C-alpha cells in the first residue's frame, strides 16, 4: 500500500524538524503507540495497538532513521510483527519539509506499507482504510502539538 500527501503547519521548518526528531513527541502523535524505547540516536523500539476490521493486533516494532538532511528530509524504515496473528509489517517512510516563509512549513510525505500474514488476508481495502485513518489522526495531532508549542 502506498500513501502520499501533504499538510501545512503554522510553524517554522526548524521547529517542525526538531519536533519530528523528538521520538517521544513524534510517538505521542501516533495512535496506539506505546512502550517506546530509544536504542540509539537513529533507532527505537515499541509497540502499536491497532484494529483492522474485526481483528485487533499489537505490533512490536523497530524503527530506524535511514537518512536525515536537517531541516529538509527524513527517511525511515519500520519493521514489526503482530504478536496475536504473527502478521508482519514493513514500511518505508519519507518526509520532506519546505519553508513557506518564517512561520509556515509544508510537510509532504510518502509511505509504502507491506503487511503479510493473517491481517493481509482481510484485504487491501480494509487495511488501506485503516492506514489512512491512522495517518490522518497522526498529522492532526502533529499539527496541533507543534502549533500549540509555537504559540
Computed over alpha carbons, the radius of gyration is 15 Å
Strand order of the largest sheet: 1-7-6-5-4-3-2
- In angstroms, what separates the terminal alpha carbons? 36 Å
Mean pLDDT: 91
Low-confidence stretches: none
Compute the number of strand runs. Answer: 7
Category from helices, strands and their pairing: alpha+beta
Supply the number of helical segments: 4
Give the overall form: globular
Spell the H/E element sequence: EHHEEEEEEHH
The biggest sheet amounts to: 7 strands, antiparallel
Q: Percentage of helical residues?
A: 25-40%
- Strand content is over 45%
Explain this structure.
- The chain is an alpha+beta fold.
- It has four helices and seven strands, in the order E-H-H-E-E-E-E-E-E-H-H.
- A seven-stranded antiparallel β-sheet has the order 1-7-6-5-4-3-2.
- Helix 2 packs across helix 4 (124-150).
- The longest helix is centred in the last third of the chain and has 27 residues, at 124-150.
- It is globular.
- The mean pLDDT is 91.
Topology:
Blueprint: E1 2-9, H1 13-21, H2 23-29, E2 33-38, E3 43-52, E4 55-69, E5 73-82, E6 88-99, E7 105-116, H3 118-121, H4 124-150
Antiparallel strand pairs: 1-7, 2-3, 3-4, 4-5, 5-6, 6-7
Helix pairs in contact: 2-4
Observed structural traits:
globular; alpha+beta; 31% helix; 151 residues; seven-stranded antiparallel sheet
Short overview:
This protein has 151 residues and is of the alpha+beta class. It has four helices and seven strands; from the N terminus they run E-H-H-E-E-E-E-E-E-H-H. The longest helix has 27 residues, at 124-150.
Amino acid at each position: 500500500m502506498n500513501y502520499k500527501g501533504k499538510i501545512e503547519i503554522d510553524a517554522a521548518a526548524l521547529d517542525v524538524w526538531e519536533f519530528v526528531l523528538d521520538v517521544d513527541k513524534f510517538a505521542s502523535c501516533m495512535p496506539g503507540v506505546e512502550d517506546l524505547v530509544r536504542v540509539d540516536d537513529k533507532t527505537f523500539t515499541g509497540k502499536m495497538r491497532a484494529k483492522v476490521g474485526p481483528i485487533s493486533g499489537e505490533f512490536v516494532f523497530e524503527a530506524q532513521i535511514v537518512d536525515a538532511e536537517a531541516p529538509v528530509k527524513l527517511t525511515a524504515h519500520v519493521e514489526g510483527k503482530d504478536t496475536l496473528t504473527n502478521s508482519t509489517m514493513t514500511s518505508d517512510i519519507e518526509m520532506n519539509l519546505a519553508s513557506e516563509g518564517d512561520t509556515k512549513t509544508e510537510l509532504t510525505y510518502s509511505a509504502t506499507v507491506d503487511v503479510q500474514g493473517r491481517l493481509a488476508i482481510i484485504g487491501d481495502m480494509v487495511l488501506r482504510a485503516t492506514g489512512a485513518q491512522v495517518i490522518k489522526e497522526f498529522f492532526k495531532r502533529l499539527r496541533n502539538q507543534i502549533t500549540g508549542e509555537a504559540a
